[in-house]
């Protein structure tokens, strides 16, 4: 059934074969059943690594192999327990590595699912949004500009539908579709104009189609039999860390080589010294770093999801931390996008409209006295056009509050406000459509800033048009005044512009309404042809309140050295009014309109972009220019967008941010990040999380490096000054297991520091280890070396034997490393001021690590294996005293850092 030539079938036959209804779609039960038999609508990629493959991967490490080989050799010469335990620890380490990696990839997987595309379907007679993977053959799918076609469809309706099929056929010009054609014979893919194919993009118009094949049975699925699974490229940070890891690896190997030679010179048996050197290298090289970084990035991304942003590309997390400019749309992002029409200007009069939200009840007043809108022909016409030239639907939402029905809008809130305003005057779309159905349309787009629909009227036809007032006024030659159509005068224009200005300065969003008689319904309506010589009817102004949380977010931005910039298609006065309300604009001169922008050269725009905070009346092409100009000034730009035309600007920006609710698939696909609540405040929250993640990554790198360098120094210096080897190989490996994984991960979960949003943005090219950190690492590892060697020398003198002294050194090193983890929790704040026990993971991780230390000290059998001796309370006094030295040093050096 899957490979039927659907394009040769009549619509009704398609619906018969697929047992669906061309108006109501499938029922939920039918869909459930079909899902069982057809499976999910997804392209099956290459499978990921299995656990065993991951485990094997862990043993491919050169050093680990040497360690295992060396252990096997020592087993052969009789050191059975020691070597067996070493192998056990190596295996344990590998298992831990696998757990970390699989957690990381699971977290990334989960995030990818969240960003998965949705499809608009009709099921049980209702429009629903469902995950595209749940589509089944027979589903009735709605398409509009900006949508990805979610499965292969046989179209049943098309309104100026054009689809870009480049991804499938390579053809770069969008294909015009026509649902009414039926092909008699076989035609190639590119010519099947009554069908739409999975993965292609609707570039214009609207349509409806029946799903005929899903998943791997679609045309694209059959081409790409086995799709390579999408491999995320490493982020700049990951690359930098890999680089760092390599350098550290080579350096530690070199030093371990020297240690080995020094040991031999000092007469330590070859195998023993070899094992020590290799174990030291294994302990010192932070092999878990990449996995921990991925986990921290992924967990940070999960926290961001709770704060309403989905990160699609890992690198965005880092870039967020260095963002210096956030360019945001106004409508819906800085405002609530809950429009309510409050003013109407027609026939020279300004009317007011009462009522809140989408409840279709309210009164019309003129000069403070109530009027009957039905008795006013001008109001009637204006509201009729507003509600018919409209794609929004008003619905009872089913929930009742305070014994009152509640209402909601399906579609664009701007249009919703018009439907509600008309309903308040008793004008309902459903009634009007009986005599004036829509016969053709020119859809809205942000470049034209207007929309037209065609309807029958009397003996002929009429085009109803609504759009941006200035644009509409320029295209009108006549005006409906005192019940008659007369040529529009300069006086009229002046009055209209004044009324527009008056409403806009009150932060109202204003639309103009007009119409035009036409003789026939054009097959392919050309906007340039139709949308001119119109008859102007009036203006309608709606409030779209600023989001209360946006004001606070803008304040935070400014404190964080980030400049918020508004880029809107709306009228300048409206934009300025909202920007002032939000505290974005202190000085009115820093506003630029699209028309003004067009007169500037690239250099002039770059110069202007330094202090323009509001761009008004812009179209998507301007957005691209604006991002470019801001970037040229050396900024890192985050930019929001929702429409198809916004995609280039989203791509150009350092971080493209798509709207989750109102955004098109294309915008979401191009973006690096999606806002699930379309809210500006969520971008700022994401920036904050980005900063936190980066600073946490710095923290655990700081921690790991200072500890690992100390480990090398301890053995190296001991060899140099003629001491016995202070730590046995098995102790080094145990230490590595205890102190690397848990505390480092816990540092990755550290909560934000209080001043995280009071610092300037991080420079993108800043190395992860700056001079300050290098110094701090040097200081810390020196103090740790001094304290461990100090305790070792002390114990050699005052206790009995090397074994006891090693136990002292071993316990002191672990103790001081665990404390080191606590001091690493902030680079500048004292650990007491951020709450010593505030990080639960840290407390848990260090307690487990410490218990693991106690086990090898106090379980008699393990004491034998780990070559440790019993430690009394008195011994612990000494160990704690020495172990505290690096801790005190770290906290004291923070005091100096804070002073500077
Ligand atoms: P922002 O860019 O901040 O989201 P916006 O919603 O005003 O602002 P666009 O959607 O590009 O930006 O709209 C541009 C202009 O087109 C609007 O200011 C309005 O005048 C007009 N307009 C918006 N929606 C419609 C519509 N559905 N029908 C007709 N005209 C519209």
Describe the protein in words.
The chain has 900 residues and is α+β, with helices and mostly antiparallel strands. The protein has 4 domains: 161 residues, Calcium-transporting ATPase, cytoplasmic transduction domain A, CATH 2.70.150.10; 281 residues, Calcium-transporting ATPase, transmembrane domain (Up-down Bundle); 154 residues, HAD superfamily/HAD-like (Rossmann fold, 3-Layer(aba) Sandwich), CATH 3.40.50.1000; 201 residues, Calcium-transporting ATPase, cytoplasmic domain N (3-Layer(aba) Sandwich). The strands form 4 sheets. Strands 10, 11, 12, 13, 16, 17, 18, 19, 20, 21 and 22 form an 11-stranded mixed β-sheet that branches. Strand 10 and strand 11 form a beta hairpin. Helix 5 runs parallel beside helix 26, helix 8 packs parallel to helix 25 and helix 12 packs antiparallel against helix 13. The N and C termini lie far apart (74 Å). Bound molecules: adenosine-5'-triphosphate. Adenosine-5'-triphosphate binds next to helix 13, strand 17 and strand 18. The site of adenosine-5'-triphosphate has 18 residues, from helix 13, strand 17 and strand 18.
Short characterization:
The protein has 900 residues and is of the alpha+beta class.
Helix % is 40-55%
Q: How much is the average pLDDT?
A: 88
Please tally the helical runs, counting DSSP H or I stretches of 4 or more residues: 31
The description of the largest β-sheet is: 11 strands, mixed
